[in-house]
């Protein structure tokens, strides 16, 4: 075994160990929801944003707070409401007076988006004007105000929540903003045993003790390591065909796509599959992405990038149903 290979093996082992420590700490607070917790951590290790959808009271906000504490990252929360303005998020120029000279000048007062983990709580309650204010920040980690560009401290993540059942007073996220989320994770109900554990933990007098197991430099190093994982040409071709299969009436589309999809995934979907697949490979002790890695991240990576047509809405067909059909029909190798 070469020195380089030994070094890679040591880095990968440390990567898995850090991931396991984060999972263990989060598990002290969040009961169950293993796929959700794993998905959010995977998104962070890739350097992407995550949208959590679920009814109130399932622990979405607590999960984000816990991750910020365990990873020792700066954390801010914004409660999105219809009267929230872009300046309430990004910041604004204020007139300040110099006490020594009495002269006045404009000074930019930074908003709560200047953090490392931003919890955008109930993001679909804000107006489209306010939602669109986050597009630049989510894509480039910068804020432009009054002709000046401000860099956000890295790493920077937006973890947003939305409630799928209350539609009055909400504004669906535009496709351009949905596309900037790496994953969309659907948070379901707890099981009987999980609910009993939740009640026991949250109604007692001793809160769980959390240790900081990561920091920003270590997290950035883990993101870099994930990008170095090998993506072989035949696996890359597979994830590209899975992405193209979401395009209706295209050369790689399947019957379900043609019947129910109006608009398919953008290239960001393929990029997400590649990056998330690399993280899954590292967590499984490998340095190359497998077909199974791609399949495991396919639904959360693509479900929010599909725009369903009228027939799908009328028949109650969800994006996941179409994506599962695509996984069944698209072969690993294109003959």
What does this structure look like?
With 335 residues, the protein is of the alpha/beta class. It has two domains: 1-82 and 113-203, P-loop containing nucleotide triphosphate hydrolases (Rossmann fold, 3-Layer(aba) Sandwich), CATH 3.40.50.300; 229-335, Magnesium chelatase subunit I, C-Terminal domain (Helicase, Ruva Protein, domain 3, Orthogonal Bundle). It is 47% helix and 16% strand. The protein contains 15 helices and eleven strands. The strands form four sheets. A five-stranded parallel sheet has the order 2-5-8-1-9. It is globular.
Outline:
Helices cover 47% and strands 16% of the residues.
Please write out the topology:
Blueprint (H helix, E strand, L loop, with lengths): L2 H25 L6 H13 L2 E5 L6 H11 L4 E5 L6 H5 E7 L6 E7 L6 E5 L6 H5 L2 H6 L1 E4 L2 E4 L5 E6 L12 H4 L2 E6 L5 H11 L13 H12 L5 H12 L10 H6 E3 L3 H17 L7 H12 L4 E2 L1 H6 L3 H11 L6
Parallel strand pairs: 1-8, 1-9, 2-5, 5-8
Antiparallel strand pairs: 3-4, 6-7, 10-11
Q: pLDDT under 50 segments (min length 5)?
A: none
Number of domains: 2
Number of extended strands = 11
CA radius of gyration: 22 Å
Task: Report the CATH C-level class of the largest domain.
Answer: Alpha Beta
- SSE-based structural type: alpha/beta
CATH-level-4 superfamily name of the largest domain: P-loop containing nucleotide triphosphate hydrolases
Strand proportion: 15-25%
The helix content, as a percent range, equals: 40-55%
Q: What is the N-to-C order of secondary-structure elements (H for helix, E for strand)? A: HHEHEHEEEHHEEEHEHHHHEHHEHH
User: Largest sheet, order of strands side by side?
Assistant: 2-5-8-1-9
Helix count from the secondary structure assignment: 15
Termini Cα gap: 36 Å
Named CATH topology of the largest domain: Rossmann fold
CATH architecture of the largest domain: 3-Layer(aba) Sandwich
State the shape: globular
Rounded mean pLDDT is: 87
**Major beta sheet summary:** 5 strands, parallel
